[in-house]
Design goal:
single chain, 167 residues, alpha/beta, Rossmann fold, 7-stranded mixed beta sheet, 7 strands, globular, binds S-adenosylmethionine
């Protein structure tokens, strides 16, 4: 493994428990195609979704520079056949078929993205990370639709739970 891969895997470690719990929450398995909204330039979540479940992942970000770096990272990890990175807004058309979605903490506007995804009858589960109390407004957490179906807790500095929305 070269240095960049080792570093990526090290930085990815804190997300492993988070994503494992999210996969259980959304009942995500290898037969699913998962949209990851807000993959960022270091697509830890996208890589972990496929590593932990075998599911195919379509990962999107509104930031074109982040998309370029994320594509490079996914190639470096040898995941090109399992993770596709697209430049798109999670609130708009994605141009791909998927049946589950996992949203990053930073995704905005959370309420619009969640409700647009659930408008698609093919989408059975949407999982979204929620900011800790003091950070709620700065991450737009006060704009999440309710009611949600279930939640799991996390021990991360900026977010402390993920919510599951279903059809
Ligand atoms: C900082 S990254 C964090 C991702 C983290 N590395 C992971 O693996 O989960 C969050 C990204 O969400 C993106 N983002 C925010 N709102 C979005 C939206 N509506 N659609 C797509 N991407 C969005 C931002 O551009 C940012 O790059």
């Amino acid at each position: 493994m070269n240095g960049s891969r080792v570093l990526f895997k090290l930085y990815m470690l804190p997300y492993t428990r988070v994503v494992r719990r999210e996969m259980d929450l959304g009942d995500i398995c290898k037969d699913d195609v998962v949209l990851n909204v807000g993959c960022g330039s270091m697509p830890f979540t996208a890589a972990l979704i496929t590593d932990l479940t075998g599911a195919k992942v379509v990962a999107v970000d509104v930031d074109g520079e982040a998309v370029k770096t994320a594509r490079h990272t996914i190639s470096m990890l040898g995941l090109d056949d399992r993770v596709e990175i697209l430049h798109a807004d999670g609130a708009g058309p994605i141009g791909r078929r998927f049946n589950k979605a996992v949203l990053a903490l930073h995704v905005e506007p959370k309420d619009i993205v969640v409700s647009r995804l659930l408008d698609d009858p093919y989408v059975k589960a949407v999982v979204i990370r929620m900011p800790r109390g003091a950070l709620m407004a700065s991450y737009g957490g006060d704009r999440v639709l309710s009611p949600f179906a279930k939640q799991v807790g996390h021990l991360m500095p900026t977010f402390d739970r993920s919510l599951l929305f279903t059809q």
